[in-house]
Design brief:
seven-stranded antiparallel β-sheet, SH3 type barrels, four-stranded antiparallel β-sheet
Length: about 250
């Protein structure tokens, strides 16, 4: 069994190309990134591409670059894949895809088949794109309307409080994502964060004037800004305006 799991992991892993916060031109666009340890990423099936087949959970494990846990499943036709593990999923459990049989945690079913008020995760926003929302550890969404409107869409509420209009045929996984205590994780020493690719961060007021607008103890009376001079506290960061046929209610 261990040899089979090793072979499956080898097939479902891919190399992570870490760029140290640089874009395609080599310019640093994200600061304080670099010196990450070499590792491979797990290929996760967010779409559940194998339709109308039951599958069994073989293993649950953590994954790099993902806060929630993942589960290795095997379909009836012999295919293997990794999925995002919802809270309560156990080894040996039978789950289904695109078939609504019961309210079993881990089933991936269309939204119009899910009852009102049920918590879901790995929510599909665009039809055919796979799960895009509520994928972080401990996150979930809630279905607010059971019946579609005249535009053939349903309303779901994200954990942030925003409400979105989504096609009724989009899928979602029943239950909330696993590893709910991820936010309680505390790094005991600096090397743990360095292995994850995070470099030390220094306050702008401790720098020289040529390195930061706050450098040289000259930030008195002016608001906090980034090294490039943009406001960093309270400024809205949404650049793209979301049209009303997608978002139903913004976060307060």
């Amino acid at each position: 069994m261990n040899k089979l799991v090793r072979l499956i992991n080898y097939k479902l892993l891919k190399r992570i190309n870490f760029k140290g916060g640089r874009n395609h031109l080599g310019h640093i666009t994200v600061r304080h990134r670099g010196c990450i340890s070499k590792r491979k990423n797990i290929i996760i099936d967010h779409k559940r591409v194998v339709f109308n087949l039951n599958s069994i959970v073989l293993m649950l494990r953590p994954a790099p670059k993902i806060t929630s846990h993942v589960g290795l499943i095997m379909y009836e036709n012999g295919l293997f894949s990794y999925i995002l593990s919802p809270a309560g999923l156990t080894v040996g459990q039978i789950i289904s895809s695109k078939i609504f049989r019961s309210l079993t945690v881990g089933n991936f079913v269309p939204l119009y088949q899910i009852p009102y008020g049920v918590l879901v995760c790995n929510v599909e926003i665009k039809l055919g794109y796979g799960g895009q929302y509520s994928r972080a550890a401990g996150s979930f969404s809630k279905l607010l309307t059971r019946y579609p409107n005249k535009f053939n869409k349903l309303v779901i509420q994200l954990k942030s409080g925003e409400q979105y209009l989504i096609n009724r045929k989009c899928g979602a996984t029943l239950g909330s994502t696993s590893n709910i205590n991820h936010w309680l994780r505390n790094f005991k020493k600096a090397s743990q964060s360095r292995k994850l690719g995070f470099r030390p961060t220094v306050r702008g007021i401790a720098m020289n004037p040529v390195d930061h607008p706050h450098g040289g103890r000259t930030n008195g009376g002016c608001p906090s800004v980034s090294p490039t001079g943009f406001l960093t506290k309270g400024k809205k960061t949404r650049k793209r305006k979301i049209v009303s046929n997608i978002i139903f209610k913004r976060k307060c």
